[in-house]
Amino acid sequence: GVLHEDLRLLLDTALPPKRKKVVLGVGDAKMGAAVLEELGVQCQTGGVVAELMRGIRLHFPALVRGLTAQSAAKAQLGLGHSYSRAKVKFNVHRVDNMIIQSISLLDQLDKDINTFSMRVRSWYGYHFPELIKIVPENSMYCRVAKFIGNRRELSEESLEGLEEIVMDSAKAQAILEASRSSMGMDISPLDLINIESFSRRVISLSDYRKGLQEYLRSKMSQVAPSLSALIGEVVGARLISHAGSLTNLAKYPASTVQILGAEKALFRALKTRGNTPKYGLIFHSTFIGRAAAKNKGRISRYLANKCTIASRIDCFS
Fold first, then answer.
1. For residue 221, which of 117, 95, 64 has the smallest C-alpha distance?
2. Where does the Nop domain start and stop, copy by copy (predicted)?
3. Which residues contact 150 (CB under 8 A, 6 or more apart)?
C-alpha cells in the first residue's frame, strides 16, 4: 500500500496532534502498514473494522449532514462512470488486446475453414469424387471445385487456368483425365450454383485468414519482438492470450510458462498422483518438435526460461 497525498492531508486534518493513544481502523492491512510507517498512527484491521465500515456504508446518508440518498446515489454513479472511463482508456492503450483478439479469431477461423472445406468436399464429392485424392489441401480444393463447376464441361482449354490454381501442370492434367472417366453422379445447375457460392465463401475466409495472420505478425513484431523471434508469432500470441496480457505473462515464473495451456492435464495428474505434464502451448514450437522424445521435457524447460526473459524484456524495457 502507498499513502496518497490526499489521504495524508485528510488524516493530518482529522486526527489530533497527540496520536499515541489513537487507533485507526483500516480495511486494508497493507494500507495500515503504510499509515503506520508514514504518520506513526497505530492501525487495526479485522472483523470489527469490517463491520464498522459496512455499517458506515449502509447508513452513510444519515451520518453526513445535508446528504440525501439521491445525492449519494448520484455520487456513486459518477464514481462508477469515472472508474469505468479510466479503465477503458487504459485498455485502449494496451495493444496486446489486439493480439489476444487476433489469435482467438485466427484459431476460430482455422476450425471454421476446416469444417466448411470438409462440407464442400462431401458435397462436391458426389459429382467428382476423384478430385479429393488429387487435391488434398482444403483451400485449393475449394478453388478447384469453383473453377471446374460441372466436370463434363472441363476441356483442354481450361487446362491453363487449372494450372494457375494448382500450380502444377501434372496435377492439372491428372484432374482433366479424372474428370473424363469419373464415376460421380450428374448434378443439377441449381445444386452447382449453391456449391460454387459456398466454395466462394470458404475461399473468402481463407484469404481473410492470410491477411489476419500478416496483421498478427506485424502486431507481434511491434509489441513482443523478442518473444516473436524466439518462439514465433503464433505461439507467442497464444501464450499472451492464455495469460491474459503481456504483463501477466512477464510476471509468470518459467515453471508456469512451461505448462501454460496444460492446466487440465496438470490438475488431473495432481489428483491421480501421476506424472505432471512437461509442456503446454510451447509444445507447438519448432524447437520442441525437432527434439528427440527423451529431450522434449528438457528443451521445454529451457525454452520456457528464455520465453520468460524475452517477455520481460518486451514488457518492461
1. 95
2. 223-317
3. 127, 187, 192
Q: Do residues 42 and 120 share a domain?
A: no
Given a contact cutoff of 8 angstroms between Cβ atoms, the answer to whether 44 and 26 are in contact is: yes
40 in a structural domain = yes
Residue 94: what pLDDT?
62
Percent helix, strand, coil in the chain, to 5, is 75, 0, 25
Overall average pLDDT of the 78-100 stretch: 74
Q: Name the grid cell of 210.
A: 492470410
Q: Tell me: the pLDDT tens digits for 15-40?
A: 887 877 888 888 888 888 888 888 88
The reported pTM is 0.67
* 219 within a domain of the structure (yes/no): no
- C-alpha grid cell, residue 145: 471445385
Strand partners, 23: 42
Domain boundary among 214, 243, 274: 214
Give the percent of the chain with pLDDT over 90. 36
| Structure-block grid coordinates of residue 311 | 517477455
pLDDT at position 47: 82
Cα 238 to Cα 100: distance, rounded to the nearest angstrom: 8
Q: How far apart are CA 150 and CA 123, in angstroms?
A: 13
